[in-house]
Amino acid sequence: MSAQTDFVQLGHGSGGQMMKRIIDEVFLEAFGSPELLAGNDAGVADLPASSDRIAMSTDSFVVTPQFFPGGDIGRLAVCGTVNDVATSGARPLYLSCGFILEEGYPLADLRRICRSMAQTAQETGVRIITGDTKVVERGKADGVYINTAGVGAVPQGIDLSGANCQPGDVVLVSGTLGDHGIAVMSQREGLAFSTPIVSDAAPLNHLIAAVLNAAPRTRCFRDPTRGGLASTLNEFAQASGVVITVDEDAVPVKPEVRGACEMLGYDVLQVANEGKMVAVVPAEEAQAALAAMRASKYGEDAAIIGEVSPCLGADARRSSANWPSMNRADTASDQAPDADIPAIPTGSVRVRTPWGSTRILDMLVGEQLPRIC
Amino acid sequence: MSAQTDFVQLGHGSGGQMMKRIIDEVFLEAFGSPELLAGNDAGVADLPASSDRIAMSTDSFVVTPQFFPGGDIGRLAVCGTVNDVATSGARPLYLSCGFILEEGYPLADLRRICRSMAQTAQETGVRIITGDTKVVERGKADGVYINTAGVGAVPQGIDLSGANCQPGDVVLVSGTLGDHGIAVMSQREGLAFSTPIVSDAAPLNHLIAAVLNAAPRTRCFRDPTRGGLASTLNEFAQASGVVITVDEDAVPVKPEVRGACEMLGYDVLQVANEGKMVAVVPAEEAQAALAAMRASKYGEDAAIIGEVSPCLGADARRSSANWPSMNRADTASDQAPDADIPAIPTGSVRVRTPWGSTRILDMLVGEQLPRIC
Q: CDD domains recorded for this chain (chains A, B) (predicted)?
């Protein structure tokens, strides 16, 4: 018996429910370390024989095309990993990069990508300290794939996690949503909009540092990449056992991106971003966090978009494993088996529409925009 | 004008001279951090606000087939990076892993690979703490590519580098050469030998720790992967400005591997290994290092294979950039421009043949066995 489900499908890379399943059932099943089970975008771990902690994260980049309005695969490869390391509250320090090159790829393009990586690394203040090159035959890759891994130093006392959200907290986003996904898709499909749509690819480590300084009790950060805001908030809601409600009207979206999404049938809240940060902060620090975002480069359009409330009825934390971007509540600090706990209704994220109604905001099921990063 | 040299060629991934060129001219040109320019297999860097140093390394694995006698891509992916981190003298601690999956890849094979990674990680004592999954369409990869990056803690006082070799030093290898390359190649090409040839894929961090304990003045370690012993020794010779001479008779090679190499026209000294370590130690510590290797798992066939001597005539250190496996002498600690220094004759590695003659052992020029790791 060999069903379609026995094979890798594009949806397994979506950032949505199918990706969550392969992570749970294959990767966490094999590798379930406490750092992975904690389910954040970066693993935080001790250095033995010292009090230092490091944060580590990795991403492979397979975006097509490699050059698009507002960025390229090189800028993505640096921003993506720097941002993931920074979400832990760490100061990103060092990057590795591994290139998988297809035979026949133009060296001029590779040079352009490397210059972009170097420039972006300089903007972030991280250094590329080790690397690797592999070449595969024509037809065994698609030009160039890049993996970056990043390491940062976690300051003492910092302990951010998607499992930290509490009723009463406030949700912020650092700017307009959907720009990256729509920019890449329109470049790929040759769609032209009257106003050009440009990727938001940007490093956010300085913005995060500014928010942490202004709002030291910040619960967590996450960059809403594949799966968009929908995946990020569902991960937070499941890891923390809370309901998150978003005001659709409050979510900043560029008119041209909104128009493209309506035309193409996408929910902008599920579209990938590469230069935006979601933060959850206690209500009393929300204004300070917002001001810090708005004063930061890449944060001028920041907004408060929602709030956290308790689960209704018998709702409770739901076990939800993650790799590295989906959460699992049963971490080392929370080992209680949850067999007796009734499942939380799917849709612990809700959207208040401009018409006063409420809808459930779920994770993507399959794949929406393959190879967006 | 668009010559063939304007495009990526298979030889750019060979571990030999062409790879050195793309590293020098593309990657180091863009990213030239001091850690990269130091030219070792792992970058060693400080953690600010502490005296801790970390070592970081990365490798992507594109081997075909993914399962071969003696190992699989998962075991390689853990061993390769753990070994590279360990060559710095660091204790490897944490790994990231990034999967690039081709649509349609069997999940059963992916599970098998992950179990192998988990088992190998356990053997090494490292933990996988973060990961990433990307899926590309059919025909845009070859089943599965895996990147791992590794981080280790460097003990105080340890400062290993390929640039540390000194005349009078002794060269050791931890076991038989050529096993991995010939095992993968014969599996791929469907060649059958009377005695099956099995990959040596193995983690060597415990062996390295034992050698460092027994021979604390060890100059450097390197695992002779792509490009084989030839690349490793040429890198050492160029970085240190020395001549290295190998006794061909002393190099351990399994008879069946030697036979296969003769039949296929390969120089076994240029064939890839995945579970061997080369060490350069001061003569007075050579016997202690040898005994430590032989007492270690995976080191029973260790041997002393050569020695280091001064460059002849006007020879001197040659600038030779590296990413991460080729050396460059002009690191932070050696900033003198070498414009006035005559180039060392190529072939600073020599082999004494069993017949008493001497030949130059050069790096591979192009590609010998593509996608061996």
A: HypE (cd02197)
